[in-house]
């Protein structure tokens, strides 16, 4: 047989493929679409195609009109029937458009961004409409890509596009916004001259007071400076242990500028630091609530005439704090804390104390300029007559620790009647559940003092200071740094000197060093 030679067919254009015999196939939908896209009627943008109605519409223009009408139908829901725009065909250029309810006119997609929201048209709007129409024609002379990006896809984007593209609307909005700003400035009320804003030491607190000063004289603030310091102790191996002391300083207490709450909490036991930290977080809020309950929210100085009310405030506040500790989840069987709190209202000092932390007030006499010590608290030791009587009535036992040879070691402690625990060295405290069963209570002892001197120093410290330093020794240290022009640096030097001397005494007389915490507030 003779071999058959097969020559490959080469096609240079798309038309040669179509006209080749034997390669014709039935046209498909995709082919029709491709033919439509490859033969655009012009190089103008899609938005310029079929801008106005003309008399002769060929088959290609029919397809363009169908596509544009479908795009318009996506702008609004099917249940919405928009009022269509009518453009006259008298001239080549369109006349001013109007709104109509006629349904036989096709939509013009290129004028959609310039649709007016008002249905009524008048002669005053016609010049502006012509300007908008001419500007829209200039904007439509962009590339196909830019027009495609700006075509609104839904009703929301259409409205936004209309607002952004209408120069008239932008001018109205800018004019209205400027008028609103001017109007707001004009109607803004002026602050009366007799009212001024005063800021206290705490920038978060502000009080609107009268410049006449009638109420300001009643709430004079005597506290000028206050600082605190807390130092962790050491165990027998000279290693720093966990600091179980907590310091509480609350100025502008209860939102009143001349009220303060100063407290030292000395924790003891395995979980004593947790107890003192909880008291630090919770007790100020409780005391503030009790003051507002028994005395009220008035901005007044709480003096001696309110002794009964203040006593109720601290009694109920400390009892609530003790109740909260019993249900807080901390193991307080053999752990607790002292609390020596001083509430300051003007020149009135109220000290509520439990335990062996101590508060004193060192004041200078107006006439003789001599210094004297005012004891604001008593150390609650188990061997005090009143404290010991209560413990014995509760079937407890008070005595120092007894060594195997029968020798008493250390201070008096609280024990169960027939057991060698808990051995607490104080008769009042927060926590200490076991000791509370034999007469250890959390009821505070309240002492009041009114400052009538030229100046004074409030000193609150834990037993890390008072164990080896007496009130007189602390007074001597403070007075050695005093001057008529007191500042924070001198207060800090006072505290450093007291802490340094206390640490030295512990190192000389004991194998361990207790936690040392101190607050000093200067009154003038």
From TrEMBL:
Region (Disordered): 17-61, 79-152
PPM-type phosphatase domain location: 225-523
GO molecular function terms listed in the Swiss-Prot or TrEMBL record: protein serine/threonine phosphatase activity
InterPro entries the record matches: PP2C (IPR015655), PPM-type_phosphatase-like_dom (IPR001932)
Ranges annotated as biased composition (Polar residues): 35-59, 79-91, 120-137
Protein name: PPM-type phosphatase domain-containing protein
């Amino acid at each position: 047989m003779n071999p058959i030679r097969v020559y490959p067919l080469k096609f240079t254009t798309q038309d040669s493929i179509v006209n080749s015999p034997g390669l014709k196939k039935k046209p498909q939908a995709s082919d029709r679409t491709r033919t439509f896209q490859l033969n655009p009627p012009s190089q103008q943008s899609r938005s310029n195609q079929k801008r106005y109605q003309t008399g002769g519409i060929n088959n290609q223009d029919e397809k363009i009109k169908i596509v544009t009408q479908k795009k318009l139908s996506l702008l609004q829901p099917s249940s919405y029937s928009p009022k269509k725009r009518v453009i006259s065909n008298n001239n080549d250029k369109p006349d001013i458009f109007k709104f109509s309810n006629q349904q036989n006119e096709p939509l013009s997609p290129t004028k959609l961004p310039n649709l007016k929201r008002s249905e009524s048209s008048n002669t005053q709007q016609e010049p502006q409409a012509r300007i908008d129409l001419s500007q829209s024609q200039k904007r439509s002379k962009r590339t196909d890509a830019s027009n495609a990006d700006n075509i609104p896809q839904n009703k929301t984007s259409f409205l936004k596009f209309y607002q952004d593209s209408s120069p008239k609307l932008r001018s109205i909005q800018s004019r209205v916004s400027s008028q609103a700003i001017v109007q707001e400035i004009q109607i803004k009320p002026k602050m009366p001259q007799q009212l001024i804003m005063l800021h206290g030491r705490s920038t978060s607190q502000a009080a609107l007071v009268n410049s006449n000063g009638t109420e300001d004289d009643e709430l004079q603030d005597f506290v000028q400076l206050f600082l605190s310091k807390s130092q962790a102790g050491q165990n027998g191996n000279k290693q720093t242990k966990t600091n179980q002391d907590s310091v509480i300083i609350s100025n502008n207490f209860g939102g009143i500028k001349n009220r303060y709450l100063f407290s030292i909490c000395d924790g003891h036991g395995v979980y004593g630091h947790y107890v003192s930290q909880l008291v630090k977080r919770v007790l100020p809020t409780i005391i503030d609530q009790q003051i507002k309950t028994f005395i009220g929210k008035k901005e007044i100085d709480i003096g001696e005439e309110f002794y009964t009310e203040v006593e109720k405030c601290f009694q109920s506040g400390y009892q609530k704090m003790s109740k909260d500790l019993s249900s807080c989840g901390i193991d307080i069987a053999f752990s607790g804390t002292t609390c020596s709190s001083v509430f300051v209202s003007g020149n009135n000092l109220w000290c509520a104390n439990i335990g062996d932390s101590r508060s004193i007030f060192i004041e200078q006499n107006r006439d003789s300029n001599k210094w004297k010590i005012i004891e604001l608290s008593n150390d609650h030791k188990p061997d005090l007559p009143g404290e010991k009587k209560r413990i014995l009535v509760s079937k407890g036992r008070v005595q120092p620790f007894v060594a195997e040879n029968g020798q008493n070691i250390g201070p008096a402690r609280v024990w169960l009647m027939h057991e060698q625990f808990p051995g607490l060295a104080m008769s009042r405290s927060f926590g200490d559940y076991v000791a509370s069963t034999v007469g250890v209570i959390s009821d505070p002892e309240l002492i009041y003092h009114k400052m009538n001197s030229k100046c004074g120093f409030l000193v609150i410290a834990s037993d890390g200071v008072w164990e080896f330093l007496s009130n007189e020794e602390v007074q001597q240290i403070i007075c050695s740094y005093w001057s008529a022009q007191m500042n924070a640096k001198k207060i800090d030097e006072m505290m450093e000197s007291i802490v340094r001397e206390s640490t030295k005494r512990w190192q000389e007389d004991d194998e361990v060093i207790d936690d040392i915490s101190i607050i000093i507030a200067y009154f003038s």
